[in-house]
Amino acid sequence: MGGATGAAPFEGMSDVLLEDAQGRPTPRRRVRAFDTFVLFLSVLALWQTIGSWTRGVAVSPPWQTLVYLFGLLRTWMFWDHAAATLAAFLLAFLLSALIGLALGLLFGVRRFAGDVAEPLLAGFYTIPKVTLYPVVLLIFGLGMSAKIAFGVMHGLVPITLFTLGAVRNLSPVLIRTAKVLHLSPGRTVLWILVPACLGDILNGLRIGFSLSLLGVLIGEMFSSQRGLGFLLVNGMAQHNVPLSTAIVTVIVVVAIAANTAMLCLGRWTGPRGA
Amino acid sequence: MTSESHVELTEVVRQYDGPPAIQALGPIDLVIARGEFFSIVGPSGCGKSTLLDVVCGLAAPTSGSVRFEGKELRAEVPEGVGVVFQEDSSMPWLSVRQNVAFGLRTSGLPKKEVAERVDHAVGFMGLAQFADHYPAQLSGGMRQRVCIARTLVLRPRLILLDEPFGALDQQTRLLMGDELLRLWRETGATVLLITHALDEAAMLSDRVGVMSARPGRFIDMIETGWPRDRDSRVVADREFGALTARLWSSLREESLKTMGRAA
Amino acid sequence: MKRQHAVVFVRIAVLAVSIIFLEVCCRAGIVDPLTVIPPSEMLASMIDRVGSGEMNTSIMSTFSTIVFAFVLAIGFGILAGALIHRSPRLRDVVDPLLASYYSVPTFIFYPLLVALLGLGKAPLVVLGVLSAAPAVMISTLSGLDGISPVLIKLARVHRLSAARTFSWIVLPAALPRLFTGLKLALSYALIGVIAGEFILSGTGLGYDISFAYQSFDNRAMYGTMLFVLSIAVIANGFLYAWEGRLARRRSRG
Q1: How many beta-carbon pairs below 8 A join chains A and B?
Q2: Which of B42, B73, C93, C161 could form a disulfide with B211 if both were Cys (CB 3.0 to 4.6 A apart)?
Q3: pLDDT tens, residue by residue, B223-249
Q4: What is the ipTM of this complex?
Q5: 3-state class of A49 per DSSP?
Q6: Domains identified in chain B, total number
């Protein structure tokens, strides 16, 4: 994490409040918590302003959204749709992870194949994949499999690229150690490769997680009759603004919570890893 | 006396606010004469670099005064001062020639004269072959030479060097020392060199100041008495050994203090 | 370098073989023409549509939206990044937010934006900026972090004004990392705008693709698709190559 510790590039950069040499619990954490709370309140205030100013035409204000959400969480309909999204997402992520890890390991170990594949993968990463959606629909039809395909389309590449990078950056001395210890290829992968690359691999999985979710949601928004993405677009079409706002809130909260959890997991395994 | 002195420090103290407050330097009283080659040696952490910052105006003293050419400095680098830092300060996005020309961008000199001065400095520092290379392609020693050339091209009246040869091997250091002496004679500038290498200080300087452990103060001031047209071959002179021995005897105890503190 | 050539050769070969394989499968009827048309047809369709000028309004519309979003994202991103860098306290709060920003699919805000701003360019531009600006902010912070403090000291020794310190030292020193952010910003802005046009819009290339799909006009759809993807690949490839040139000079050549 960047910050004030270390050389300050600009004169006059204050270190006030951020350093305490006497070993007392640093006020920094408290300052940050306070500031974050203030930021959170400002966002709520902004939300409220937009909501009431537009008279609920686009966004419903925070309190109404919360009330609606609690009501929504008690309906069968919501959980039916949420389950659809969850199922598609989990399958998409699982597939992305398994294929991505396998390909990443393969391309990382086989340098030549990796060098050939990497720009192709990186290129795929930067193009608007949404333009390929019709092709996916034409191939898979309108259903769960199309949604899973969207998710994999988005989630596969970052996982592969991160794993590839991690394996490639592996210090050669570790491989030599494995050979000296006469480890089988399987054991080399399991006992040396994976633990050393764990940090980067987890990062890739974290990003693949978010992108698989994005893929599934966009797929639902475009062409589906079930799922949270569908609810969102449907809500808009029926001018059910509280519904749309509530769905957006749910997705945002779940996405950030999952990402933060994975970041913490990464930090927890961090010091042991690379 | 003021007309001869180039740099004057009077009761200079430099403190860092805490908590806890650390006195890094001082009190320092120092007069450097115009055209003098003055070196400072001292244990690590004694405040040598802080002293350099104060002398050139990069840092203001907490108390006391610093005068350059009679005028008091106020945390601003005056015109006519060149500094070569310990860390590599070459700019990786410019070629050697462009790096050296950098200092003259604000000078308002005509392009022809800039080119002349740059070519002279590049040649003087032995970089002519690499003039269009980029710093990333050069060794550490050559990058320092680029920084020195960049300082040289400004024709400063006071040149400050903070352990400029720290990262170099001994032979290169000796040769660079000769280069520095050549530079000094050619420009007639006053030179303040900070180094931890006692032999370097002894062979290059007119005068050497020995600093104590933190807070740094001068505990010894030695005149070397070398002639102006000296080079690294003074190592053969009998006086050289005596000088180095005297430096070490002053410095040894201070170094032990620093080591003990660090441990 | 022999190996580098071999890598490029194999890469081109893999692409060529895949395209030829697809072409053969389509022509032979193994692949249903209602699903995928042969690559040669796609190319012909693209050339026809671009040449006839029928795509011109869409092209202008989409490109202008992307460029507008890109420029706004850069301006806002660099400014915000520089301001955050100056304030350690603000940075402490913003760092974790930036780290989690891209875990939220920004796209879900698009329907809300449309409801708020109407169906036109505005929600597309906002979506593009929302997608691209944080990448620029992150790379600005990283770039400013990476400036060696000795260079700032150097600026003071040369008595450079604040403006000159910024343009002669800070900017060139931060440029490599900043450029990476710009590269990302272009690709995110492009993706955001095209996705927006695709799902909910009245004009633009994304809309054209969606419309063609819904009209069962495979030929038009694939032609436009090929065009959009080609432009994306060329634009990103260009920036990538430029970035490589910048980096090569500054690292161990």
Answers
A1: 4
A2: B42
A3: 988 888 888 787 778 888 888 888 888
A4: 0.86
A5: helix
A6: 2
